């Protein structure tokens, strides 16, 4: 009987570790997707600010963020440089990613 209790403990510990690592991996993937949405939104805003595409810069950024499943939190355009923050929720936890786009200094 002592061997079966040890086996149950090992299996339970392995299951807890697997669930924890899976959750951490999913959070990392979500963070990368959110960062990609921020990059796309910043590029769209910078393109609109430069006149390369039509529309208001922050409206274009909001469109791209929504297409990526995120929401535009902040948008600031100074000259041709756009800085945006997009947000989303990973389960019960809010997450925010920021990006900046524009011509080189």
Automatic annotation (TrEMBL):
It comes from the Bacteria. This is Helicase. It comes from Microbacterium aoyamense. InterPro entries: Rv3654c-like.
């Amino acid at each position: 009987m002592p061997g079966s209790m040890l086996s149950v403990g090992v299996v339970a510990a392995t299951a807890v570790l697997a669930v924890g690592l899976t959750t951490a991996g999913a959070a990392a993937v979500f963070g990368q997707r959110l960062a990609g949405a921020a990059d796309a939104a910043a590029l769209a805003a910078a393109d609109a600010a430069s006149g390369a595409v039509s529309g208001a810069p922050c409206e274009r950024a909001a469109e791209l963020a929504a297409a990526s499943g995120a929401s535009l939190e902040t948008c600031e355009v100074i000259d041709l440089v756009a800085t945006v923050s997009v947000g989303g929720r990973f389960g019960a936890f809010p997450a925010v990613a920021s990006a900046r786009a524009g011509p080189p200094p």
